[in-house]
Design a protein that fits this description.
The protein is mainly beta. The protein has one helix spanning 30-43; strands spanning 2-10, 20-27, 55-62, 65-74, 83-96.
Length: 113
């Protein structure tokens, strides 16, 4: 089958522990190419650049997965001090093992009398 880099995000608003799949990046060249692409994404971003104002901690949690903590200081009008906004990403390498399109629902029958 084919290899992907999966990116899940958790913005941690109010202690919410919901992870959402935010990107499925197809990679040609096999597992080694997918690992290299995943590591690149963990160190930069999906676009390949790292915004200057963004802080980043990258943890390699296994040979094929990373946990990224991104932080940014945000200044609100009502506060003299900036607030730190933190987002977490899980980046992993995955092999697609099944691809099945959803079934088309049957057409509604119109009954005539």
């Amino acid at each position: 089958m084919s290899w992907y880099v999966l990116v899940e995000a958790n913005e941690s608003y109010g202690g919410d522990n919901t992870w959402d799949l935010v990107a499925k990046v197809p990679v040609e060249g096999g597992q080694a190419a997918a690992i290299a692409r995943a590591e690149e994404i963990s160190r930069t971003s999906l676009s390949g650049s790292l915004p200057e104002e963004e802080g980043r901690l990258v943890f390699r949690t296994s040979p094929t997965s990373w946990l990224v903590e991104k932080s940014r200081l945000v200044r609100h009008e009502r506060s003299a001090e900036p607030t730190e906004h933190t987002q977490h990403l899980r980046i992993s390498v995955a092999e697609l093992v099944l691809a099945r399109e959803p079934a088309v629902p049957p057409k509604k029958r119109l009954f005539h009398r």
